[in-house]
Amino acid sequence: MTSDALKEAIRAELPALLREDPALRAFIQDLMRDHYAARQETDDKFYQLLGDLRRDREEQARKWAEQSRKWEEQDRKWHENNASLREYIAEQKRLWEENAAERKRLWDESRTEQRRLWDENRAEQRRLWEENATERERRWEENKREFDRVHEEIMAMAERHDRSIGALGARWGMQSEATFRNALAGILERHFDVQVLHVEEYDDSGSVFGRPDQVELDVVVKDGLLILCELKSSIDKAGMYSFERKARFYEDRHARKADRLLVISPMIDKRARQVAERLGIELYSDSIDVTDL
Description:
The protein is of the alpha/beta class. The chain has helices at 3-20, 22-31, 39-98, 100-131, 133-171, 177-192, 237-254, 270-279, and strands at residues 196-203, 213-222, 225-231, 260-264, 282-284. It has a 5-stranded mixed beta sheet with strand order 1-2-3-4-5, with helices on both faces. The chain is flat and about 145 Å long.
């Protein structure tokens, strides 16, 4: 017999066998116990669920009844408090009306006293104002001088920033190097009452650039001092060496030693600073930073 034929035979005969054979029925029930709950167990769970629902409903009803009682109690207290509040307001209104005349009298007295104190205080303030007129004038002059000093510092700072921006412009070709140099020279002339001379001389021997060429240099002469300057928007290591050679060329040409060598530039390369330190060249980021000439 095949497996399918056996299954068909079991389906056909099993119901009758279960009704007629208690042992087989018990065997089948025991076999299926892990998969299906017994009827009694199912009934017990169902009735337990119904009992839980009934208890929950009864508990909810009890809570609602308790809440309703609290609301009624709260409503009663509210009405009591409202009645007390109305009585309090009525009493306050009565007292207010009874004391109206006394309040008016006190108000008139207080206003008269305040006016008297105001007049006395105003007279005292006028007296103090007149006594301190000289001191105020002195302080005003001091504050004005301080304001002027701060204003000059702010304007100097603004000019410094303008020159820094101008240096960037000259660096990137937005304005000429000569325009920037003239601005720095103008600051020197205005701050130190000197004349900055822009000297151009021809180097026949080529000692500055390695071949004959025109040499440009700024010269400041004051009270017998000879100061040679390089006024540029920016300067690097090679430019620092070039300035030193131009200075020596000028000294040899005029047989006179320079008292000071100055480089004034808002943008000085780090390596150029090292060169300047070795060569004894003074560095300044702006003309107004220069020490007394």
